[in-house]
Design goal:
The chain is an alpha+beta fold. About 40% of the residues lie in helices and about 20% in strands. The protein has a domain of about 240 residues: ATPase, nucleotide binding domain (Nucleotidyltransferase, domain 5), CATH 3.30.420. This is FGGY family carbohydrate kinase.
């Protein structure tokens, strides 16, 4: 049976699957893992986890489906991240994660001025500098850990690290590169040599490929470690949100893709690279498919925090949140539990729960969490529209779609129709599709047709309107106090 393997390394777990060439999932496996938070604002991961879990999960998949003839491999992972390795390919320090790691906050103004100002950076890179920018993270390591920098010869992200270990090739996909701001030109699709040398002196940049391009083939050493056949092709891979977007066919201008996961990610394809203040302009997975994206620092992570805090069962708490009703019985939350990325770009923002009384239940708090993330989605949409980016409908994927309450709240708050596809496995499925496209003629519309459409309820949309305006006001009203608290944490 011909099959492809898709892998995704997420913030809290790694998932892998085997799929037939018609998109049917044969087997799925996963492993949970944790990130490290050595200090406030620092979020890292032991990169050994990425390869260890890939090899383990691959063996499990092959054992579950011994009849599978794996013909290609696709990979994705969290990003933009920074892993530095030495001349022997060994990691020099833990990987620095994406925008949830805010260590560069104090460096951004200096770097922006050094490169000629925000307008100059946006003109070439599409986005200004933020804690999401991997180029700024490279500069941070070069300045603060010179002994590490002196030994660094390569930098990779989770997907490109696995590709390197599978194939021996030092590559990075264009989309991931476009999030290494300010090192990559989103209009020319090339590295910016003078800015690479200024922020990452002496570090060779990886060869650039598009996400679905073949990076190389599985080597004999990698085959021995994974059980995969020698010589099968491997994609260049990409960042998980874009692979998940591929899995639902998100490359339609005006349709926003929402990734319901530990963090929430938003992607809107655009006809051409479009700078939007507070958001990220990227080049997408394929040539001619640029997009504007945004991301929350936490979303599903808050619900998981709450579940662990009260020792609750997910299904029970979800039903309690449903029963709480619109407005969570007078509760309002700011979901900035790890700072916030877009559109406020405030690493010192913190979570706030307003309106608590002794009568409130965990269901009310859970409901307030879901509503807060929906308000944040609407905030991002309003910023996009103000910059001329059309957003007329939504398409969702990810584990948060289970139970349908969360996407229903998002549709009601935004007033937008939302499509839920047949397969919501996520990025590993998108990675498998890209792998299949290396060796066969496949169509994601046949792999993963729409299954459900969530229509917004006009009555609910109107009922959420006061809550949204209070949400926007609450941040401004509490910002000064929250920043003082953050400085003492």
């Amino acid at each position: 049976m011909r099959a492809v393997l898709g892998l995704d390394i997420g913030t809290s777990s790694t998932k892998a699957l085997l799929a037939r060439f018609d998109g049917t999932v044969i087997a799925e496996v996963g492993r949970r893992h944790d990130v490290d938070r050595p200090a406030q604002g620092l979020v890292e991961m032991d990169a050994a986890v990425w390869w260890d879990e890939f090899t383990t999960l691959t063996h499990e998949l092959l054992a579950l489906a011994p009849e599978a003839d794996v013909q290609a491999v696709g990979v994705s992972g969290i990003g933009p991240c920074v892993l530095l390795t030495d001349a022997f390919g060994e990691p020099l320090r833990p990987a620095v994660l994406y925008g949830v790691d805010t260590r560069t906050a104090d460096l951004l103004d200096e770097l922006t001025a050094e490169l000629g100002g925000e307008d100059a950076i946006r003109a070439r890179c599409g986005s200004g500098l933020s804690t999401q920018a991997a180029g700024a993270k490279l500069a941070w390591v070069a300045r603060h850990e010179p002994e590490v920098w002196a030994r660094a010869v390569r930098f990779t992200m989770p997907a490109s690290r696995v590709v390197e270990l599978l194939t021996g090739e030092y590559v990075l996909d264009h989309h991931s590169a476009s999030q290494t701001t300010p090192l990559y030109d989103v209009r020319e699709n090339v590295w910016i040599p003078e800015w690479c040398e200024r922020l990452a002196p002496g570090l060779p940049m990886p060869r650039l490929l598009w996400s679905g391009d073949q990076a190389g083939v599985v080597t004999r050493e990698a085959a021995a470690a994974t059980g995969l056949p020698v010589g099968i092709p491997v994609t260049a891979g990409t960042i998980d949100a874009w692979a998940e977007g591929v899995s639902v066919g998100e490359s339609v201008p005006g349709r926003m893709f929402l990734q319901y996961g530990t963090t929430m990610f938003m992607i809107v394809p655009t006809p051409e690279p479009t700078p939007v203040p507070g958001m990220w302009t990227t080049v997408g997975t394929h040539p001619g498919q640029p997009s504007v994206s945004g991301g929350m620092a936490t979303s599903g992570a808050i619900t998981d925090w709450l579940r662990r805090l009260v020792d609750g069962e997910w299904a029970t708490m979800l039903e309690e949140a449903r029963c709480a009703g619109i407005g969570a019985n007078g509760l309002l939350m700011l979901p900035y539990f790890a700072g916030e990325r877009t559109p406020i770009a405030d690493p010192d923002a913190r979570g706030v729960i307003a309106g608590l009384t002794v009568r409130h239940t965990r269901g009310d708090v859970y409901r307030a969490t879901l509503e807060a993330t929906a308000y944040a989605v609407r905030h991002n949409i309003e910023v996009l529209r103000a910059a001329g980016v059309e957003v007329r409908e939504l398409v969702g994927a990810g584990g948060g779609l289970l139970g349908r309450l969360w996407p229903t709240i998002v549709s009601d708050v935004t007033g937008l129709r939302q499509t839920v596809p047949s397969v919501t496995v996520g990025a590993s499925y998108g990675s498998a599709f890209l792998a299949a496209a290396l060796v066969a003629d496949v169509d994601i519309r046949q792999w993963n047709p729409p299954a459900t459409v969530i229509e917004p309820d006009p009555v609910a949309t109107a009922a959420y309107e006061p809550g949204y305006h209070d949400y926007r006001e609450l941040y401004e009203a509490t910002k000064a106090v929250v920043h003082r608290l953050a400085a003492r944490s």
